[in-house]
Amino acid sequence: MHFFVKSVVLIKSVLVFTLLGNFCTTLASPSLADPYVVVLNTTLPQPFTYPAAIYVGNGLAYILGGSVRESSHLNTIYRFNTSDESITLAGILPGYVYTGDCVFYPEENAIFHFGGSWNVPNVLRITLSPELDRVLEIITEGTINEDNYLLFTRGAWDSSRKKAYFLGKPSYYHPGKGFFEFDPLNINVPLRLKLIENVWPFDVANVASFFDESSGKLYYLGGSKWENSEDLDSIYQFDPSDSSLTLLNVTLPYPDDNGHLFWDKENGIAYIFEDSKITHSGLMWFKPGTMEVGYIPLEHFMEYTAFRFGLAWDWDQRRMYMFGGNYENWWEHATDRIQYIQL
Ligand SMILES: *[C@@H]1O[C@H](CO)[C@@H](O)[C@H](O)[C@H]1NC(C)=O
Ligand SMILES: *[C@@H]1O[C@H](CO)[C@@H](O)[C@H](O)[C@H]1NC(C)=O
Ligand SMILES: *[C@@H]1O[C@H](CO)[C@@H](O)[C@H](O)[C@H]1NC(C)=O
């Protein structure tokens, strides 16, 4: 049974599903280094799950918030140095956040954190020093309606229009009211955050997203449809110029409800970490330029499995860092582990 499932996964991995042909073709898939999973000796200061994480450049990543256990959340900002693998407390947020997400605005050395809390109903702006090694200022911007806090949020940074797009699950049932545009350059601060209404037809959690510089469009992959807990394999394209959302005629190899995506801008490939918990772990990939999708199995990942980690894509070293996380339900079996997948 187990072997059967595994071999199906392997066969699937060498197939590339394409929109351009009506049949499957075998193409050279993106590949991984060997070894591709490295577990660091450095750990987080304590086990936690559901943090947000982001790599900002200069060998530095930041890890924001997280959950230690049920109703015990974090307000910490940790800095991780990829060179000496040290973890340092870099700042304290104005409240507790978990299940939120961050984007980075490089021209202003600013991290924007969005959603993930009843405690902080705002967009948080964390301004870093020019060397990116210190937190200079933390301010709140863009309050959203009190009964519409977002959880399980994912964000993408539109680097051409200098705007962030965030999608999350409203804390109460508000179909279609979890999608926001944030414009940090709007001089009218209360108008920076804008609900994009009537675009998402239902409430969704953990929909992975990224901005594709070459097409100027955003993509939304997988996620969990809240109403019936359905894990999605859908891929949507969002055009910010007219706020239109299009369901593409291509699906992910597997449904995914964790939203762990990174965008390899240089090669035009989005990767999504996928773990079925029982049968397989892997990286699904999607190339918006050709509408191809594929799957790279992570044969040796089983023993290191963790969900709900904070993901930071270190594009300098081509590493997908994973901070903390847990498996089983919610806060159970949280880990202090730091590991990476080397592309
Ligand atoms: C979508 O793809 C399927 C299978 O390749 C094809 O039969 C169908 O015509 C496509 N639909 C559109 C609208 O392109
Ligand atoms: C981790 O620690 C072990 C045992 O002390 C050591 O052998 C190994 O080289 C260390 N690994 C790294 C990546 O530092
Ligand atoms: C990161 O580690 C490297 C190597 O030890 C060191 O040269 C650098 O100053 C560190 N950066 C920060 C911000 O601590």
Report on this model:
The protein has 343 residues and is mainly beta. The protein has one helix and 28 strands. The protein is globular, with a radius of gyration of 19 Å. The model is unreliable at 1-26 (pLDDT under 50). A hairpin with an 8-residue loop joins strand 8 and strand 9 (123-128). The strands form seven sheets. Strands 2, 3, 4, 5 and 6 form a five-stranded antiparallel beta sheet that branches. It has a four-stranded antiparallel beta sheet with strand order 1-28-27-26, with no helix packed on it. The protein starts with a helix and ends with a strand. The chain has one helix at 2-13, and strands at 37-43, 52-57, 60-64, 67-69, 72-81, 86-97, 101-105, 110-114, 123-128, 135-141, 150-158, 163-170, 179-182, 193-195, 204-205, 208-212, 217-221, 224-225, 230-231, 235-239, 244-247, 261-264, 269-275, 281-287, 292-297, 310-314, 319-323, 337-342. Helices cover 3% and strands 45% of the residues. Bound molecules: 2-acetamido-2-deoxy-beta-D-glucopyranose (NAG) (3 copies).
